[in-house]
């Protein structure tokens, strides 16, 4: 007597087992992919930005924090941090909750008259002291994100910039 291994109930059981296994594999794969795509909120740190060459007391230091070329130097798209200037010399400004591994660019200026704007001269050049997180290639134009960006990594939580005038 021969037994049909692929009888209706066995075939259905095999099919459903295969569907369950494939669903579990797909679910695991999606979970793994989402873990790579989602920022790890436990991987954040604080940056201590030291601004040097402060020539005037008073006003505020403004720091714009940018994540991409598309957002760079657009005040509406920046994360802004400010600190009151009480003395000449240097000032350390804490910038909290930055994601490790991200690239950032910082644009800094000393708002000496505390009007919330970077004042410019007749030629459109900054009339107040300014700095960037990296050294621009030229002073004949605004820098690009790529020129002044830095990668925020564990162990690199300190940055020093020097204010300059045009």
Write the layout of secondary structure elements.
Blueprint lengths: L7 H30 L6 E11 L5 E7 L12 E6 L4 E11 L3 E9 L18 E3 L12 H4 L1 E2 L6 E5 L4
Parallel strand pairs: 1-8
Antiparallel strand pairs: 1-4, 2-3, 2-5, 5-6, 5-7
Brief rundown of the structure:
The chain has helices spanning 8-37, 145-148, and strands spanning 44-54, 60-66, 79-84, 89-99, 103-111, 130-132, 150-151, 158-162. The chain is an alpha+beta fold and 166 residues long.
Q: Mind summarizing the main beta sheet? A: 5 strands, antiparallel
- The total beta strand count reads 8
Strand content: 25-35%
Structural class: alpha+beta
Supply the number of structural domains: 2
**Gyration radius, rounded:** 27 Å
Helix content: 10-25%
What is the third-level CATH name, the topology of the largest domain?
A: Immunoglobulin-like
By CATH reckoning, the class of the largest domain would read: Mainly Beta
CATH architecture of the largest domain: Sandwich
Taking all residues together, what is the mean pLDDT?
88
Q: What's the SSE pattern?
A: HEEEEEEHEE
């Amino acid at each position: 007597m021969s037994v049909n291994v692929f009888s209706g109930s066995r075939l259905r059981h095999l099919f459903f087992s295969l569907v369950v296994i494939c669903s579990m594999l797909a679910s695991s794969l999606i979970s793994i992919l989402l873990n790579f795509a989602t920022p790890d909120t436990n991987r954040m740190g604080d940056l201590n930005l030291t601004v040097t060459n402060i020539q005037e007391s008073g006003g505020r230091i403004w720091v714009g924090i940018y994540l991409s070329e598309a957002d760079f130097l657009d005040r509406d798209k920046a994360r802004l941090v400010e600190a009151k200037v009480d003395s000449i010399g240097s000032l350390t400004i804490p910038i909290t909750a930055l994601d490790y591994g991200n690239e950032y660019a910082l644009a800094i200026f000393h708002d000496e008259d505390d009007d919330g704007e970077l004042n410019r001269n007749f030629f459109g050049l900054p009339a107040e002291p300014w700095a960037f997180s990296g050294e621009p290639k030229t002073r004949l134009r605004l820098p690009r994100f790529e020129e002044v960006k830095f990668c925020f990594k564990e162990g690199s939580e300190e940055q020093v910039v020097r204010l300059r005038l045009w």
